[in-house]
Amino acid sequence: LAGGVALNCVANGKLHSAGIFDKIFIQPAAGDAGGALGAAYAGQHIYYNQPRIPTKQHDALLGTYLGTEFTTTEIEIFVKQFNAIYQVERDFDKLVTAVANLLADGNTVGWFQGRMEFGPRALGARSILADARSPAMQKKLNLKIKQREGFRPFAPAVLAEDVQDYFDQNEASPYMLLAKRVKNSNETKLPEDYHNWSMHDKLNLRRGNLPAITHIDYSARIQTVHKETNPAFWKLLHAFKQLTGTAVLINTSFNIRGEPIVNTPLDAYTCFMCTEMDYLVMGDLIFSKKMQPLWSADDIQKNEFELD
Asked: Which of 80, 181, 226, 291 is found 20 to 30 A from 52 (Cα to Cα)?
């Protein structure tokens, strides 16, 4: 599936659940911008007479991490202009353990690692992460960081090998393009008079063990995280599971309302400082908001975008 309509994760989930196709693959940049990829393939086949060779692999895009990447030195050069304060942790296992502890303690973390994702979804390279178990986290992320309405839902990132423990899903969903139901074992039974409640009260009802990612209809827009395609993000989720027993995190795009996903370290640090995000992790560097120099309006070097 491709085209803008294929970004409708609810429709995709229903189509997948109907079982009328052996397999469904959804182009991760299924919109106008992603059409460039199809045009390139068409040109290769039609004009250059190159064969269309199916691969045995279900997803030859390998996670669609096709964008820019920055070294630790490059990141340090970007943030030096702000006299930013950070801790360096070159042992990645220790880094993910430290970040897992920060998340388990209720902190929000900007996660900037490796090559940027291709497409409209943050897939664990330019992401804001938080604990999906927290009943307060949905509103906190929406109002204090994303700067949008408090009811907006967030998507879960889950270890691919554990997805069936949490969701009615038994296949890969690496691009966050399928909405599936949260497992019954993680649901909260609705009160008998629930359907007489106001919409405000319905939205504020805690739904199961993962309230921050569970929609009002008990569905969730799932991203399965695979060790083969994003080992860094997989290691973080694995460390969080070892610490908490839960293999799920909130994964939302690293930006605020009306702005594109951050691309450079300058974008990331600016977004970090202009919101109430608690920590920023870029490569080997860990930034604590409490330790940063005072941020002034003169420091904001960004374009203004029309709100969506």
From this structure: 226
C-beta atoms surrounding 34 within 10 Å: 21
Phi and psi torsions of 33, nearest 5°: -60, -40
How many CB atoms neighbour CB 150 within 10 A? 14
- At 296, list the tokens: 């002034």
Give pTM, 2 decimals. 0.90
Cα–Cα dist 248/161, whole Å: 12
Residues 134 and 244: beta-carbon distance below 8 Å: no
Q: What pLDDT digit, counting tens, does each position of 259-286 carry?
A: 999 999 999 999 999 999 999 999 999 9
Cα–Cα–Cα angle for 28, 172, 34, rounded to 5 degrees: 5
